[in-house]
Amino acid sequence: MRPDTPADHVDHIAEAERLERTAGLYPEDAEHLLLQAAAHLELADARDRATTLYDKLLSPSAPHPPENPTLIRALKAANLWEYGHEAEARAIIEGVRGSRPSQAAPWVIVAEALEAHDELDQAHATFSEALDRLLPDPDLDPPYATHPLLYGRHRVRRLLGAPHDNWDERADRVHRARAAASGRTPVPLDELHDPKRVWSLGSENPEEIRAEITRLQAELGTFREALSRPFPVAVLHWPAPELTELLTAYPDLETEYPSHEAHLATIESSLRELSASGTPNLGIVTGTVPSYEAFAASEGTSPSDATLLPQYATTLAARGRAVGWPPRGDEACWCGAGRIYSACHGSSRES
């Protein structure tokens, strides 16, 4: 949820205010936009204003209930601690941990906040709780979103001087696999997370300095990979009530959507074809008629124009609205029918 390019020349206050104005124009995207605005305010050291935005999103009087309240509380806690509100931050962090979120991001934020303030035992406990919650099956490949949990736990354990365990070995494997996939020679995690690395930066030995530069370049490559990771190639999904409303208002789109069942089947088949062709990072975005109409108006085009549909899907994905595909077999199906994926649209999926 942090801006991807916090360059020194960016006027973070002006950018935050621009995002707040945009959020007023597009209330359906207000949460995503205001979180970005809060991040800019934090970078500008206007942390009290960032807290105000977090409170605005969490307020019972907000126009739309937040989609990710636990994430917002985690961000608020990390921000509060940075400008002296330690007691309140700790209380919120305990609440986030107690809620056992099903997404990785809130865990990462509160664990790294604890780590940043030298609460290493609590940071280690938080990373461990998150992995137990999100990766209960050791045989499954860790989803991309959980990689920071693996790396963070490994890093904290190095700071604590703890020996390797099964989670540390798993972090090593993921790190090596990602480096190999990008064509880099991996620097072992034990080296990247060595607490003594900082000492090398003050060395007068050229060899030590060059070795440290190599390690830092490898670590920077990992961060750049995460920041440049493209948003999903997303397919547009209309829930049944939204599709009915869409076709009632714009009957010209019936050629695109002959029935809701056909629409759902097309989504799954399209994603499978993309996957089989080697397209990475696939996802699904869910449309709403008011959002689509607002997008059409911003493009100066009629919502009846079918060529607008893929552009709308891409815009939703770029705003962080995509859900990764495919779900695990034991997760809820993307279609919203209430069945697990393996018993719904994933029932004929090849192993």
Account of the 3D structure:
- 59% of the residues lie in helices and 3% in strands.
- The radius of gyration is 22 Å and the shape is globular.
- The relative contact order is 0.06.
- Strands 1-2-3 form a 3-stranded mixed sheet, sandwiched between helices.
- The chain contains 16 helices and 3 strands.
- It has 351 residues and is mainly alpha-helical.
- The two termini are 34 Å apart.
- α1 runs antiparallel to α2, α7 runs antiparallel to α8 and α8 crosses α9.
Write a brief structural summary:
The chain has 351 residues and is mainly α. It contains 16 helices and 3 strands. It has helices at residues 12-25, 30-43, 47-58, 69-82, 86-99, 104-116, 120-134, 147-160, 166-181, 189-192, 197-200, 206-228, 240-249, 260-276, 289-299, 308-318; strands at residues 233-237, 282-286, 323-324.
Task: Set out the fold topology.
Layout: H1 12-25, H2 30-43, H3 47-58, H4 69-82, H5 86-99, H6 104-116, H7 120-134, H8 147-160, H9 166-181, H10 189-192, H11 197-200, H12 206-228, E1 233-237, H13 240-249, H14 260-276, E2 282-286, H15 289-299, H16 308-318, E3 323-324
Parallel strand pairs: 1-2
Antiparallel strand pairs: 2-3
> Main beta sheet, described?
3 strands, mixed
Distance between the termini: 34 Å
Shape: globular
Proportion of residues in helical segments: 55-70%
Low-confidence residue ranges? 1-7
Please tell me the overall pLDDT. Answer: 85
> Would you list the SSEs in sequence order as H and E?
HHHHHHHHHHHHEHHEHHE
